[in-house]
Amino acid sequence: MACFIIVQSDHFEEFFAPELDKHGYQALYKKKTTEVFNGSIMTIDGCATFFRRDRFSHVKKYEVEFNKAAQSLTDALVPSSQKKTALNRLVKDNVALIVVLEAKFSNYGVDNPGKRQLVCVV
């Protein structure tokens, strides 16, 4: 009852989030940090996760920007003379959205009463 898609930010804001909200879904979104030219307009895409509000509650959201991770990695591990080459290979403006949800339904057994059921969607 949760899904993950890659979607343009304008499509997310104007269609997916409001339309799925009408059907009981909550939406979380992480937009890429740079714009990509697509035809005659500038578009930005990103990661979206949707889940049913009646089945899950949002516990935590982590946003990952791989450009920042690549910069930190090259600063720490790559000699100065090779940093530009390394960054050209690593910097692709990819992002990730990590969402932790808690199930609202319970399948608690006798062995673990009251134990939370968490789901991680990446």
Topology:
Layout: E1 2-8, H1 9-22, E2 25-31, E3 36-38, E4 41-43, E5 45-52, E6 56-65, H2 66-77, H3 83-90, E7 95-103, E8 118-121
Antiparallel strand pairs: 1-5, 2-5, 3-4, 6-7, 7-8
Helix pairs in contact: 2-3
If you had to describe this structure to a student in words, what would you say it looks like?
With about 120 residues, the chain is α+β, with helices and mostly antiparallel strands. The protein has one domain (about 1-120). Helix content is about 30%, strand content about 40%. It has three helices and eight strands. The protein has helices at about 10-20, 65-75, 85-90, and strands at about 1-10, 25-30, 35-40, 40-45, 45-50, 55-65, 95-105, 120. The strands form three sheets. It has a three-stranded antiparallel sheet with strand order 1-5-2, covered by helices on one side. Strands 6-7-8 form a three-stranded antiparallel sheet. Helix 2 packs antiparallel against helix 3. The radius of gyration is 19 Å and the shape is flat. The two termini are about 15 Å apart.
